[in-house]
UniProtKB/TrEMBL annotation:
Xref: InterPro entries: Homeodomain-like_sf (IPR009057), RD_transcriptional_regulator (IPR051839), Transposase_8 (IPR002514)
Molecular function terms from GO: DNA binding; transposase activity
BP terms from Gene Ontology: DNA transposition
Official protein name in the record: Transposase
Lineage: Bacteria, Bacillati, Actinomycetota, Actinomycetes, Micrococcales
Keywords: Coiled coil
Coiled-coil boundaries: 56-90
A family per Pfam: HTH_Tnp_1
Gene3D superfamilies in the cross-refs: Homeodomain-like
Record carries keyword Coiled coil: yes
Domain of life the protein comes from: Bacteria
Length: 101
């Protein structure tokens, strides 16, 4: 995976692109980056700025964190479920060393 560009650089590229003085292809060529990078960064900026529908960067980050939290909680529930089943089985078999008549 290529090294990410600094945020300041991306912001500058977006500002240049949004002025619409040059095409995305020309901007990309001048700055030695891919045209798809310029297009993606502009799209993200427009979504974050509310000029285009979609999920903003902050919402996407929040969604990622929430998915991680849900996964962790689901793992914890599974552990507790298994522990409860194990303890339930232990109680059904009675205390060790005792014999039933």
């Amino acid at each position: 995976m290529p090294k990410p560009f600094p945020k300041e650089f991306r912001d500058d590229v977006v500002a240049i692109a949004l002025r619409r003085e040059s095409s995305f292809a020309q901007i990309a060529k001048d700055l030695e980056i891919s045209e798809s990078c310029v297009q993606r960064w502009v799209k993200i900026a427009e979504v974050d700025g509310g000029r285009r529908p979609g999920v903003s960067s902050s919402e996407a980050a929040e969604n990622r964190e929430l998915r991680k939290r849900v996964k962790l909680l689901e793992q914890e529930v599974e552990i507790l479920r298994r522990a409860a089943a194990y303890l339930s089985q232990a109680n059904l078999s009675g205390p060790k060393g005792s014999t039933r008549s």
